Amino acid sequence: PNPAKSYVIIEGSDISKVEIFNITGRLMETVDVRTLNGNEIDLKNYAAGMYIFKVYKTDNSSVVRNVMIK
């Protein structure tokens, strides 16, 4: 869901990791998606605001998505 409250689900079978940046570009966390339970990234420890998720595929290509956390 976007905006997200407590978690975000990463969909795709070829996803390797997700980097989460705050709006100023500071890397907040790198998540190894292969170790997640149900592809859910826990957001409970993040303050409300806009974040940038850089999603890496197994072929090292990436996509960037903005996520609003309430």
Shape: globular
Proportion in β-strands = over 45%
Please tally the β strands and state the result: 6
Major sheet: arrangement of strands: 3-2-5-6
- What is the averaged pLDDT score? 92
- Which blocks of ≥5 consecutive residues have pLDDT under 50? none
Helical percentage: under 10%
Number of continuous helical runs: 0
How is the main sheet built?
4 strands, antiparallel
Span between N and C termini? 11 Å
Radius of gyration: 11 Å
Structure class: mainly beta
Structural summary, described in words:
- It contains no helices and six strands.
- It is mostly beta strands and 70 residues long.
Primary descriptors:
mainly beta; 0% helix; 70 residues
SSE layout and pairings?
Blueprint: E1 7-9, E2 15-22, E3 27-32, E4 40-42, E5 49-57, E6 62-69
Antiparallel strand pairs: 1-4, 2-3, 2-5, 5-6
Give a quick precis of the structure.
With 70 residues, the protein is mainly β. The protein has strands at residues 7-9, 15-22, 27-32, 40-42, 49-57, 62-69.
